[in-house]
């Protein structure tokens, strides 16, 4: 019977040794290598061609494991990756699944759970854990809503005049009518007239409401987008 070839990746030596010890005792598993970083994981994945990688998320960077998974999947999509995490609510789990991770192991999980995850992933019979599917759906819904809001705002911004756009940026940066008037060398009455036009296009009552919306959508990124 062919053994499951496993690569263990974690930046903490004790954790690498722990997983290596428990997995090496299994008759159907063979730890073919250890790595301490995302970069080393990519290198050893190329050299050793493991069946399964146990991959820590946060190593040399906060998303090193996810970045390494993306790279590994690009040159060998058949390698199955299981993420190692500290707790189930890890903020990067969604990104990990998008990168092609098949399951995750909490480092404090029982040995039985860990072995079951490896065998199930290797056999390609994994079903999403209860709650994980809901989290993924919720995240996709949030991203879709955010994207639709961004398109809505960009559509409005495209209808602003250059002068209105500059005034909008001034309010976003926290400037008052008086300051904007002085820096742009126009009267406050002119500023108010342009503000009324901006409010009409956004269908809002105050610039505070407009600024609040823009901050929710990270207006600084929108500005960059309009300049490219």
TrEMBL record:
May play the central regulatory role in sporulation. It may be an element of the effector pathway responsible for the activation of sporulation genes in response to nutritional stress. Spo0A may act in concert with spo0H (a sigma factor) to control the expression of some genes that are critical to the sporulation process. InterPro entries: CheY-like_superfamily, NreC/VraR/RcsB-like_REC, Sig_transdc_resp-reg_C-effctor, Sig_transdc_resp-reg_receiver, Tscrpt_reg_LuxR_C, WalR-like. The keyword Cell inner membrane does not apply. It comes from Mobilitalea sibirica. The modification 4-aspartylphosphate is found at residue 56. The keyword DNA-binding applies. Residues 5-122 form the Response regulatory domain. This is Stage 0 sporulation protein A homolog. GO terms for biological process: phosphorelay signal transduction system; regulation of DNA-templated transcription. Pfam families: GerE, Response_reg. GO terms for molecular function: DNA binding. SMART domains: HTH_LUXR (SM00421), REC (SM00448). Keywords: DNA-binding, Phosphoprotein, Transcription, Transcription regulation.
């Amino acid at each position: 019977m062919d053994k499951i070839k496993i690569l263990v990746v974690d930046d903490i030596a004790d954790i690498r040794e722990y997983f290596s010890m428990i997995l090496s005792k299994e008759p159907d598993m063979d730890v073919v290598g250890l790595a301490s970083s995302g970069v080393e994981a990519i290198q050893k994945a190329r050299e050793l061609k493991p069946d399964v990688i146990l991959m820590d998320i946060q190593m040399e960077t906060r998303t090193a494991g996810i970045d390494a998974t993306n790279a590994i999947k690009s040159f060998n999509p058949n390698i199955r990756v299981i993420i190692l995490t500290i707790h189930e609510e890890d903020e990067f789990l969604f990104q990990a699944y998008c990168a092609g991770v098949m399951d995750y192991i909490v480092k404090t999980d029982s040995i039985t759970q860990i072995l079951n995850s490896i065998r199930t992933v290797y056999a390609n019979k994994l079903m999403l854990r209860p709650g994980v599917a809901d989290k993924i759906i919720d995240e996709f819904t949030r991203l879709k809503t955010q994207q639709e809001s961004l398109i809505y705002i960009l559509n409005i911004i495209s209808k602003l005049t250059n002068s209105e756009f500059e005034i909008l940026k001034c309010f976003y940066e926290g400037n008052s009518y008086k300051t904007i008037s002085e820096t742009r060398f126009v009267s406050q009455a002119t500023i108010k007239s342009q503000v009324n036009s901006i409010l009409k296009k956004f269908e809002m009552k105050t610039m505070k409401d407009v600024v609040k919306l823009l901050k929710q959508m990270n207006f600084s990124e929108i500005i960059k987008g309009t300049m490219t």
